[in-house]
Structure prediction request, 327 residues.
Amino acid sequence: MTKRRRRSRILRRLLWLFGRPHIRIGIYGPPNAGKTTLANAIARDLIGEEVGPVSDIPHETRRVSTKRNLVLQYKNKKIYLDIADTPGIATKIDYEEFMKYGLSEEEAKKRAKEATEGVIEAIKWLDEVDGVIVVMDSTLDPYTQVNITILGNLEARRIPTIIAANKIDLPEASPGKIISAFPQHVVIPISALRGDNLEELYKAIVKYFR
Amino acid sequence: MPEIVLQIVSKELLESLGKDKLDYIIDRILEGKVLLLEEALTPEEQLTLIKKVMEKADVENFKGIEMAFYPEKKRTGLFSKIFGKKSSRVMLVGPSKLISEIRKRGETIETIIKVVS
Prediction:
């Protein structure tokens, strides 16, 4: 654990002790898992605002977007949250993939360049967060190298983690596969799009991110 | 016919490289080699590798990497948990322009390597 993280944890515990708990949460995951949709759903619930635009084209979020001092009310207690919606982490970014969604070559190359910078920024932000929600698409095989690498890092850095098994509104969703793949983690099946089960996610945030 | 170099990198070499390990791996990938590491990178090293790859990436010529590895074997028993050495396993890593697909099936990893002329 880095000195910075130790200091942050001590400060967080002190704030909790003195009745003003404040948590900085990073929303991580592969591209198109629904990270921004979830960040928007949380921010809409808590302050009636959105964090960023969403799109079917991968790597729509290419810079870290934050919303600060969101107030989560739980059991007569106020918890202050900063939410950081991060760009999707990937091992490769191919501009030709973006052209399949109708982008011109120039637009696709610009998007690819920004997306590579976004991956670097997302990785750097891991030093800034107190807890992480890893968003996974529950219609896909969860046992990918990117998911394993992200979770392995969070475990090594001892960052409290919740997996949001997203897109349970889709008929092919199978959140059980995520639960089986990562039994050592808390997994909350959700639909960020419809807001399904977000209450359970909020309960988990309060329980595990203190 | 175009050739692809598969380089098997011993655990001893990886250990001897110390903090230069990731740069060594990236340099070989940029040369167009596919590497089989006798000892997988740690999760922190994997993420640092992804970060370094993205710093080197350019949209035309180097779009990134593919990698596959087995998670380290779970240590069972109190004695081995306390005193046992982590048993990391092999890792395959190479440029994404060559590795078109990696399939993990149980205890085997299959990779499809494209021949780029």
